[in-house]
Amino acid sequence: MTILDQPLTLPHGPAWRNRFALAPLTNTQSHDDGTLSDDEHRWLTARGEGGFGLVMTCAAYIVPAGQAWRGQLGVATDEHEAGLTRLAADLRATGAVSSVQLHHGGRRADPAVTGLTNQAPWDDPARRTAAMSTADVERMVADFVAAAVRAERAGFDGVEVHGAHGYLLGQFLDGRHNHRTDGYGGSLEHRARPLLDVVTGIRAATGPDFQLGLRLSPEGYGVTLPEGREVAAMALGTGALDYLDMSLWDVRAGSRDERYDGLLIEHFTDLPRGGTRLGVAGKVLTSAEAAWCLEQGADFATVGVGAILHHDFARRALADAGFAARSRPITREELRAEAVGPAFVEYLAAGWPDLVA
Hints:
Elements: E1 20-22, H1 38-49, E2 54-61, H2 81-94, E3 97-103, H3 111-114, E4 118-120, E5 129-131, H4 134-154, E6 158-162, H5 168-173, H6 188-191, H7 193-205, E7 211-216, H8 225-237, E8 243-247, H9 266-269, E9 277-281, H10 287-295, E10 300-303, H11 305-309, H12 313-319, H13 332-337, H14 342-351
Parallel strand pairs: 1-10, 2-3, 3-6, 4-5, 6-7, 7-8, 8-9, 9-10
Helix pairs in contact: 1-2, 2-4, 4-7
């Protein structure tokens, strides 16, 4: 047994069967009302069948105003529950642990899709965005908690809070623009408060066997690397998380800011984390790269593109220490054979021309 084969125990909920997690990949396969489609169901269950320890949905919007693209999965209303319940049961049957990623686009939501004015920490008329009131921020926290409770009711093993990539919770972290004076802006402690309130609120409202993760960016979107490290430390310090999922874009990359030395991964693996587990994501395309992440001090590797190229990336990587994902681009037919539905294929073809032949 290698380190990648070893089950991963967490403070709450079931152990993962290995150290591979499916990244929360945008796939635009849901129905227009946010309900689960058969194609999205097949995309996710195929990854469970393919051996991943954790299978996570795409970013799923928690309220209609937070929807950021057409075809996005929803966890916002009772109408979404039937599909989520079916998915949770079928993922459990594959042996994978399941999670819904909770998301709100904020100023990056799409009013052309939602028909609503965007919400964000500050006004941005160019993006049809209005500043949230203090009551709005408190309501947003409650909406994240309610979505987590809905996922738990549907039978998922856990949720991951999307605090990365400049979406709403990340917008509060933005030191360039968030100058609110109501306790939700200004200092880093205040800018991080909405995110931490969401995390502690979900932990308080869900059961002892429900897993809670958080995805963060290390830097960018108005957050410096020292601030990114401090936010991660704050989140770990709550004791509420089962895992922290750092989206590094490239696990072997250094900071984009030349003031900061070392690899990004090194700025997070040394943080005190108690029983909370640490995962890293970014261009993990081989067994050796996944093992390297764990050798650096991470507890699991989150796989995105590799899981698109191979529904059974995890199984292949565990069986062969020399495994590497196939070279790109690949054909639409090859993608469909990996349970990538037509809408997802076209989304990839439009955004990643090096991926789809």
